[in-house]
Amino acid sequence: MKDKLFVGLSAAAMLVILAMLAVILGNIFWFGKDMLSWEFISAKPTMGMTEGGIFPAIFGTVALVFLMTIAVMPAGVLTAIYLEEYARADSKMVKIVQQAVANLAGVPSIVFGLFGLGFFVNFVGRGVDGFFFGGELYYGQPAIIWAAATLALLTLPVVIVTTSEALRAVPREIKEGGLALGATRLQNLRRIIVPSALPGILTGVILAVSRGAGEVAPIMFTGAAYFLPYLPTKPNDQFMELGYHVYVMATQSPDVEATKPILYSTVFVLLALTFLLNLLAIYLRARLRKRFAEGR
Amino acid sequence: MGKKKLVERGVELLVYLSSWVSILGIVFLFIFIGKEAFPLLTDPRMKEEVQFSQLWSTIWQPVSDHPKFGLVPLFIGTLKASFVAMLFATPLAILAAIFTSEFAPPRLGRAIKPVVELLAGIPSVVLGFFALVVLATWVQELFGFTMRLNATAAGIALGLAVLPIIYTVTEDALATVPKAFREASLSLGATPWQTAFKVVLPAALPGIFAALVLGFGRAVGETMIVLMASGNASIVSASLGDSIRTLSATIAAELAEVVFGDGHYRLLFGLGVLLFSFTFVLNLVGSWYIQRVKKRLLGAA
């Protein structure tokens, strides 16, 4: 009797979590769907952001995570290759890198924002200006490239951890088979290991993109803007971004009730973007696990 | 042949150097945030502007003719929000983790885990928005608070953000408990519930402690949710129905409007150093306990 009660209680806890998730998603879907249209996605905001669309914010978000991916993918994948394929598993360096990655993953996102301002904008940006532009202000100010660099550091652990997992999932026999046939380390890596782990590596990048697209605190001082009449075209332009747009409209709008429908639909678009990426990652990961499970 | 060997060595060097990015990242984080805050300790003009004795006072009023930099309300606000978040998330997350790993049929368990991952994938600005627009009203109606945005509303939304962490780490810890423990317990006549709570749970205890530490670290550092749903008023009180202003939200709300390089600017970076150091220590403690549970259980298996 007591037994059933406690098992039931733990099942109830699970149900409560699922219900909360359903309520949040349902609420945003229900109130967000009405405004959604092609025009909403493809037009600029008008009337002090109480009317019109969110195209600049979508464009800014995509440009931002694209730049971020260019930076984080090589660094993350190569680090994982070092950890899993080159370094000795018990070496001190591996332990230090793993601890650094674990700590990096736990740093609050607002701290990344401070770092982006203190390091990328104030130190690197001004350094570039002083060195190449005779001290004139080009890069020593918030810009999309600095926001992307900040997000790249924030998402680095995601790529490293997921790629490591993918490399580890490649069966030992496959790895050693290549070497036994006389392949060099690099050949084995390029022709055998990386292709087998590719879905897993892709998963890591997708998760990083999904995470990066949803973060607001790190980009607040490093490049995101309330409103811009133009799209970012140069690395030192500022940009609009979906999450930041939501924050601004929800807290600083002169007329909250008038912006509410737009706000809901913006949240809907942001959530759909991050969710679809997450679902894709979950699917790819499951497929990878299955593939190697069958091979054994 | 020589060229081929060169490429091999080159790649080896490249992957080695890449692994330094994470290490340098963590080191640079500390150096460059510290660098902006450092003049608070050394520059006499800064010391005049931000007096250290003042930091213990109870009024945070950085923008006025006589700015007051009392950190007490910010600490209290941060603790209140994290307290509510942990109170809300801990029982749900741990019970749900026990359900997934001990009681649910394996296929159901495998289906549930990605769903919780989806909860983790909701951007915090979306949770903040939901708390601001929907949850705050429910909380106010339920508890009858006078302020609509308060520690409870923000704390519950914050709880939704830390719940997946506590759940995942706890579930991982439970999964490392060897099957033999369970089989031994069941074969001695213990019921599934007794096995879960008296055998598996105690064995995984360091891992569950790690889950709480990591969850707390996330709660303390999380920004967008509290920035949007807590009211951001620096009030010193014990009531969970009052508005609060947390450390993280203070940085986010004020840094954009501050004069570059003045005392207020430096103090916000100082708060960043505090936040960073605190979560850093919590993370070290958390991963130490995770290592411990792994060593203890996998060593014994």
Number of helices of chain A: 10
Calculate the mean pLDDT score of chain B and round it. 91
Query: Level of helix content of chain B?
Result: over 70%
In the CATH hierarchy, the architecture of the largest domain in chain B is Orthogonal Bundle
Find the CATH superfamily of the largest domain in chain B: MetI-like
Q: Which parts of chain B are unreliable, with pLDDT below 50 for 5 consecutive residues or more?
A: none
Strand content of chain B: under 5%
**How many beta-strand runs of chain B?**
2
**CATH class identity of the largest domain in chain B:** Mainly Alpha
How far the N terminus sits from the C terminus of chain A, by CA atoms, comes to 43 Å
Number of helices of chain B: 13
Largest interface in this structure: A-B, 87 and 87 residues
CATH top level class name of the largest domain in chain A: Mainly Alpha
Beta-strand residue fraction of chain A: under 5%
From N to C, what is the helix and strand string of chain A? HHEEHHHHHHHH
Describe the largest sheet of chain A: 2 strands, antiparallel
The number of domains of chain B? 2
Would you identify the regions of chain A where 5 or more consecutive residues have pLDDT less than 50? none
What is the alpha-carbon Rg of chain B in Å? Answer: 24 Å
Task: Write a brief structural summary.
The complex is a heterodimer of chains A (296) and B (301). Chain A is an all-alpha fold and 296 residues long.
List the helices and strands and how they pair.
The complex is a heterodimer of chains A (296) and B (301).
Chain A lengths: L1 H31 L5 H5 L2 E2 L4 E2 L2 H32 L5 H15 L2 H24 L11 H26 L2 H9 L4 H30 L27 H11 L3 H40 L1
Antiparallel strand pairs in A: 1-2
Helix pairs in contact in A: 1-10, 3-6, 3-8, 4-6, 5-6, 6-8, 7-8, 8-10, 9-10
Chain B lengths: L1 H36 L1 H4 L1 H6 L10 E2 L6 E2 L2 H32 L2 H15 L3 H20 L7 H26 L2 H9 L4 H12 L1 H17 L2 H6 L17 H8 L8 H38 L1
Antiparallel strand pairs in B: 1-2
